[in-house]
Amino acid sequence: MEWSVYLSGEIHSNWRDQIETEAKKQELPVTFATPVTDHSASDNCGVLILGDEEKDFWKDHKGAKLNAIRTRTQIELADIVVVKFGEKYRQWNAAFDAGYAAALGKKLIILHPPEHTHALKEVDAAALAVAETPEQVVSILKYVTTRL
Predict the structure, then answer these.
(1) b (16+ CB within 10 A) / e for 56-71
(2) Which CATH number belongs to the domain containing residue 122 in this structure?
(3) For 10-21, how does the pLDDT look when each residue is reduced to its tens digit (9 = 90+)?
(4) Three-state SS at 133
C-alpha cells in the first residue's frame, strides 16, 4: 500500500524537505503533498489571478479561498496529515488545517517544539501522535507503514 501524507503548517524552514528526504532514503511507501510554500505566491494568488482589491481584507479573502482549494483537497485525500507549528509566527492556518483534518477523522500527527505544548494542548489532544522533530515523524511513518 502507498500511503498519502499531507505536510501542513509552517513554511519558513526546511522541515518538509527533511521528512521527504529521509522517507525516500528509507524507501518508505509514502507520497507527500504540500500547500504552496512560497509565501508571496500564496498571499498574492487571489489578486494575481482574479484581479486587484482596494482593501487587504478582500485580497486575503481571495487568496485564502484559492489556497483552500488545494489545501482542503489534499487533506481530504491524505491517509495521514502532519501539521507543523514553528517557533515563530502565529500559524492560524496550521491550526485550521489540524482542526479540519480532525473533523474529517484523518490520522493526525502534530509537530512542534516543547515550549508550545501548553498553547497547543487542544490540538495535541486531537492528534494520534505529537512529535518534536522531523526525525520522529519519519520514525512514526516508518513504523505505521512498514510494520503491517
Answers:
(1) eeebeebbbebbbeeb
(2) 3.40.50.2300
(3) 998 999 999 999
(4) coil
